[in-house]
Design brief:
Helices cover 38% and strands 13% of the residues. It is of the alpha/beta class. The relative contact order is 0.15.
Length: 314
């Protein structure tokens, strides 16, 4: 997960536990990602992955963003579009050659995929539909991270629509009939039984994020950890970033989601100062509590113990 939880310590612990782990490059500069990658490689020689955000189109309506800023008490000047350092991060991964580069929010151009392949780097793409799976396959992806409706954080869909996302097991079966690529199931996976179900549905591996958020190696904030120990429901919302993402329902989501415009990443940057202040104050009602539907299975345990628990039925 981008935005703090995925620390180099978490990645190293997961790698040492025998799984493939990814550094989250989202919302971090290329220099920050380079330092994270160097820290991981100093600690372990195991192959590591890096996840990049594919830039979204600048389609936000300025008047809608301004109206939302007024509603939530934010400075409209904070809203801006960004490509999240796309070119610099591509240069970084081409130079540093992680084992895998995965992409979220879209499929990179075939030329990018070809360049990564020429450097010996595997390419994975997050998909949320059979149509997206075909696009990624045609671009030359080596594997697909199939993200079901249960996933915490942002939906990795190529178009941010209001369509109802498919549950993971249904989506895996649909994608499996559309393409002949290795599939990695993602979304709501918090225990060994769910891992087993994902493999039985045609995936070659399971991808987890929320399941590790209470591990001491994760950079999860204190108010976020407190919420993960509760029992509130999760829901998809645009309230924090302008793009649909699943999190634990809190006051900010309830008050503002009906009015949140479709406008990523402008709304993300608009709400960032408000969320930072709330996080510093320990206020879980005003921050994005990204979590999948299986978050109640997360435990306060070392990453190695969490991994052993998740794979005990494999």
């Amino acid at each position: 997960m981008a935005g703090g939880p995925t620390t180099p310590a978490l990645v190293v612990a997961a790698l040492d536990a025998g799984v493939l782990a990814f550094l989250a490059a989202g919302y971090r500069s290329a220099a920050d990602v380079a330092r994270d990658l160097a820290e991981v490689r100093t600690a372990t020689t195991r192959p590591v992955g890096v996840n990049l955000f594919v830039p979204t189109l600048d389609e936000a309506a300025p008047e809608a963003i301004a109206a939302y800023a007024a509603r939530i008490g934010a400075d409209p000047a904070d809203a801006r579009w960004s490509d999240d350092g796309w070119d610099a991060k591509l240069e970084l991964v081409l130079r540093e050659r992680p084992a895998v580069v995965s992409f979220t929010f879209g499929c990179p151009p075939s030329a990018v995929v070809d360049a990564l392949h020429e450097r010996g780097i595997d390419v994975w793409c997050t998909v949320t539909s059979a149509t997206e799976a075909r696009i990624a396959a045609n671009a030359g992806a080596d594997a697909l991270a199939v993200q079901g409706a249960e996933a915490g954080g942002h939906q990795g869909s190529y178009d941010d629509t209001d369509d109802e996302p498919l549950p993971l097991l249904d989506l895996l079966r649909e994608v499996r009939t559309a393409v002949e690529l290795p599939l990695v199931g993602a979304g709501g996976i918090g225990d060994a039984a769910r891992v087993r179900a994902v493999l039985d549905a045609g995936a070659v591996a399971a991808q987890v994020g929320t399941a590790l958020l209470l591990c001491p190696e994760a950079g999860t904030s204190a108010p976020h950890r407190d919420a993960l120990r509760g029992d509130a429901p999760t829901a998809l919302t645009r309230a924090f970033s302008g793009r649909r993402a699943r999190g634990i329902v809190n006051d900010f989501m309830r008050e503002h989601d009906p009015y949140a415009p479709r406008g990523y990443p402008q709304v993300h940057y608009l709400t960032a100062p408000l969320r930072a202040a709330a996080r510093e104050a320990g206020d879980a009602q005003r921050i994005n509590l990204w979590a999948g539907t299986g978050y109640r299975d997360a435990r306060q345990e070392a990453v190695a113990d969490a991994i052993r628990r998740l794979v005990e039925l494999v």
